[in-house]
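Budget justification note: compute hours in this period were largely spent on complex prediction jobs such as the one shown. Inputs:
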Amino acid sequence: MIYLNCDYSDGVHPNILEKLIKTNDYQTGVYGFDSFSEIAKKQIKDLCNNQDLDIYFISGGTQTNVIAISAALMHYQAVISADTGHINTHECGAVENSGHKILTLPNHDGKLIPSDIKAMIKAHHIQGMSKIHDVQPKMVYISNSTEFGTIYSKKEIEELYNVCKELNLFLYIDGARLGYALSAENNDLDLEFIASHCDMFYIGGTKLGAMYGEALVVINPELRVDFQYNLKLRGALLAKGRFLGIQFSELFKDDLYFKLAKHANYLSTKLRKALVERGYKLTINSPTNLTFVVMSQDKLDELSKEFAFETMSQYDENQKVIRIATGWNTKEEYIDKLIEKL
Amino acid sequence: MIYLNCDYSDGVHPNILEKLIKTNDYQTGVYGFDSFSEIAKKQIKDLCNNQDLDIYFISGGTQTNVIAISAALMHYQAVISADTGHINTHECGAVENSGHKILTLPNHDGKLIPSDIKAMIKAHHIQGMSKIHDVQPKMVYISNSTEFGTIYSKKEIEELYNVCKELNLFLYIDGARLGYALSAENNDLDLEFIASHCDMFYIGGTKLGAMYGEALVVINPELRVDFQYNLKLRGALLAKGRFLGIQFSELFKDDLYFKLAKHANYLSTKLRKALVERGYKLTINSPTNLTFVVMSQDKLDELSKEFAFETMSQYDENQKVIRIATGWNTKEEYIDKLIEKL
Amino acid sequence: MIYLNCDYSDGVHPNILEKLIKTNDYQTGVYGFDSFSEIAKKQIKDLCNNQDLDIYFISGGTQTNVIAISAALMHYQAVISADTGHINTHECGAVENSGHKILTLPNHDGKLIPSDIKAMIKAHHIQGMSKIHDVQPKMVYISNSTEFGTIYSKKEIEELYNVCKELNLFLYIDGARLGYALSAENNDLDLEFIASHCDMFYIGGTKLGAMYGEALVVINPELRVDFQYNLKLRGALLAKGRFLGIQFSELFKDDLYFKLAKHANYLSTKLRKALVERGYKLTINSPTNLTFVVMSQDKLDELSKEFAFETMSQYDENQKVIRIATGWNTKEEYIDKLIEKL
Amino acid sequence: MIYLNCDYSDGVHPNILEKLIKTNDYQTGVYGFDSFSEIAKKQIKDLCNNQDLDIYFISGGTQTNVIAISAALMHYQAVISADTGHINTHECGAVENSGHKILTLPNHDGKLIPSDIKAMIKAHHIQGMSKIHDVQPKMVYISNSTEFGTIYSKKEIEELYNVCKELNLFLYIDGARLGYALSAENNDLDLEFIASHCDMFYIGGTKLGAMYGEALVVINPELRVDFQYNLKLRGALLAKGRFLGIQFSELFKDDLYFKLAKHANYLSTKLRKALVERGYKLTINSPTNLTFVVMSQDKLDELSKEFAFETMSQYDENQKVIRIATGWNTKEEYIDKLIEKL
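Corresponding output:
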């Protein structure tokens, strides 16, 4: 079976394994106070071209989102998300369980647009003293690339960030798939731009070559005070933190992280081209590693003998929308084989 | 510097690394639905001599405790712990943050005794309808080995469990250091006995040879319904769950887990003997891998040039209580060198 | 200024005041254990024709909703509500703050319909093991009358309840305005029917003649166990509980509660007739004490010199939707005066 | 039966009832935006000799405590309380349910002392980076009068407040029985002093003549921002807020609040004198309306035919500690009768 249902069916990049072996006999400081973690943080700070930010390594994305969001909000504050946002649809109510409502806005190909946010905030404040019956919006959550594989442009991020600053909102970017976004063909963003146009973001490792681990970058000084308590509070402070450091230091050595993403994007692009040529309908125009395509049940049944996909929804009576994901270790032969069978 | 301050300064056991390398190219199911996790679960079930229980692998101890405790309690229920319990002193209020009060009882060498629990429950229920002003005690939390390195006997566990059943309380055992406990000289417990004398417990991997990971064993059928949602809710459902499975399947192959613990216990026992012979005062009679000893500031300063210890408290004006920990990879020559310098 | 913006601008019904005076010198039991509370509970049980249910008096509606909802849900469970539901729009995220996500469905004139619920539950369970990434739906929340003044029929409630039982969901009815609903012209519900077709509901006092107070009726035996802890936990257990009992015992003496509602409904119906006759557009066909009407800004400015309304939204460039509410103490002359000025 | 078990068995002060009757026909603004609430707030501000503070009226004490404490704390912060503090012993874990740990210190006749607080904070910060494993102490909670009826002096409050400022902690005073404290014989505090020596406090109405209601005074500007959302979030924003305003405006007219307290204190002092004269042992030296006395089971049985007391604990095999409370409406003849029977 060839797994194309998600970008985390594969193992870990060999460079990481090698480094684990090479450093295994060392004794180090714990809870993230070790030299490997220091190196990885330095690499990320350099890529952000900003030494004045804090970086925390956390085992998974949902935990990272809960930590980032709850750390920034007072009990009565809410986070704004696209209705399709990961925190709203696939985290088992984790953000709400931390006490905070998610206010949803309609997504535009998985993305938020500034005018919707402005309208929501205006509607809140226009109520005067009655606004206290509503939860107070205080943060905007976006993901890049989105749950649909789409990406934000410099202009879009800049406009969102300006609106957030104008309206006194934090901007937080879920980068579970940030590598894929930054390596997409039409992308004009980089880490430096992102780190100067939001209050917090994270760089996903799990979905791009790591065993586990996300790097949360906290930029806004207001949010950086005593931030690390939040990790411990959420059970996210791993004792053997060095292993997170090792993974990220390898991923950010010689641009490995972006090279892996490029490989996956390349394969998905190749696949999409083939799909379109063969008359398949793509439901979204994704430039990254996720492809959403309409497929008849018959074809799906046939392909499912060899390939695993993610079923998203029923398209019509006889067709489904499926998600095809490529990852750091997807072999080109897999995609060629799939194309052949389309 | 030789790190003897804790049992998680070392790397990961080579068997695990080897297995990681050997299986790295596999594609597998995700979120714990993979064959390695299945194997590890089977091994644990066999050791428990009970196939009818659920096992979840979680990245760290605090997260495991919060999941186990909050999953079992209604909003108005509390967990009983020794005042020295890890959940009460070293988890940044994580249990309370999940909404539940910790009711503390005085520890007896780190342990709880049945009569204290009985008295607390009696005091609650004697109030009749007024008891609703108090939080309702519903679970007992103990750790084995304890934060002081002490262990429970069969008789003690049996009495605690009987009291819990009599009083309609869940018994939960934090086994962050369970391997050390079950491998101690005077221990008469084993996994089978534990799995039949509590409602939930966990087996710690992080402190005994793993990179990360704890195995939560849920026994009581009442607690097993829909349990897995709790993992996702707390951000604990790792996408690449196979790596947890691989670690535990290696640890429980050929009793490796217990062999590693025995090694650490042996070194600590050797050290304690040497300390006592040289007139040092041990503040607690631990049979496992943690040693608590009174040391003059001068001696501590001298030794600290080569060895890292954990300072626990000021003993008197000139002396401190320090904790010395051995682990799976502590070299005997380290302990010999330390003994020499005492 | 004549206040028609809401149904809680007025004082308390004189019968209640008289009873307060008459009983003021009594000393009574506290926290709801007093004879007045017992009498009020008996009256409600009689009206429900069911002695086997529990009743709790709580000071306000948001608190009641949070208590009812959080008491019924495990940490990972969610409540389903119309997007216009009070818990979703006007409670400052209180339900989420108690840890539970609100899953919204589109409203149909403020109401939920069974097929939408069925589709949501089906979509959850069709995911198999992957459903744990979603929060688990476990309760349905409706309000009667709704936030739009509309009411449910016997048939509608019955169908909703059957769906809930089939799908293993609790049905909870927010009755902040239950009196108005049960006294509406085309209503075919009564307390007995409601008490046998849901798991919990509350009868609103604040919006219908009381100073403060809602009566939460807990029917499902599964939910009744230890329920009262939830009140104390949420700070809702008033020390001088007798005053809640006195209010409800007066409201349910000689059908006063329903007579007051009929009066308010009558005035609103009269007003709506006049509005329609004069060509005003009603945005919703409410049979109860709330009227939603489109009004030009000019007209609104003119009327606002004498009358207070609630502005709901901008209808078009020059018109707004306003809410006009009548209450237990609204004088017919007020409505006549308003009609005259329309 | 004469109820001396608590200070909330009695009705409401007649002045309040009269005012309710006189103002019942008024229509007013809602949710606390009414002229009566404005008047009451002004009276309290005048008594505090500070116009620059915010006042919120809330229905009960537990709710007030949760609002005050949770509003001031970040998710990872804790409140320090005496082990006997109301929040720690009689609020069903409400503070923990809001997500915050209560760190307890030993009580000194129900009170906290600065040196204990200093030692706790020092112990936290001495850990350096390891302090993140502990919850962060951020607020000190005291009650005045305490749960034992004891009171703080100016000097004691001043020292506590100075320590709090020095250590960057908020000081919050639970004044459920503040009237009794400020009216005690040796008291040297007044509202002005309190309002300038803490960050928040509340003035209890329920236990001193009101039907329901506590006045939360928020002083620290840092805590005042957007504070009112917290009320709504906790279900504490009563729709008919005017009734809270009416009660407090009556209580603070012509010092009624303090006169009522003096009456209760006088009766308790008279009782204590009689108890001591007859050889009864008082377990605490309370100057306010609560008396704690050792009584044989036989005597208690005899008196319980006519008087209701609160049993606190078993003193020895044959004796109990009971609490006797006087209130605003306790008749002197009741106390005389009790004294006679001692």
